[in-house]
Amino acid sequence: MTQMLDAATESTRTMSLLLGAVASISLLVGGIGIMNIMLVSVTERTREIGIRMAVGARPADIRAQFLTEAVLLSVSGGVVGIGLGTWGSSVVTRLFEWPTVVSGDSVALAFAFSVFVGVFFGFYPAWKASMLHPMEALGRE
What we know:
5 helices; single chain; mainly alpha
């Protein structure tokens, strides 16, 4: 009996590590996607950034604008992910008759990581946008 318990504990630990690795890779890929989207947004809106800075916007204002956009992007992705995860859990319960539980703590943790990924990966594009010189930004097409 002890051997069976040890085997079950070991398989649970292995599965938890595997799921953690998959989740980490997913967060990294999602963060890189957010950063790429924001870098493209900065590149396409260079002229707008130049105009805002020419009329008095400070670099901190530009950083705040792009960080807010990155956080909104990650929050919306987090909400969609939480919805899909909850729906998937209920589908597994109905189809396979496996009891699943979606805890509020796990949902809150997932949402917090979503926001963290948005801030972490959105900071570089926001910083890059805030460092543009107004005259250079207005001269670009």
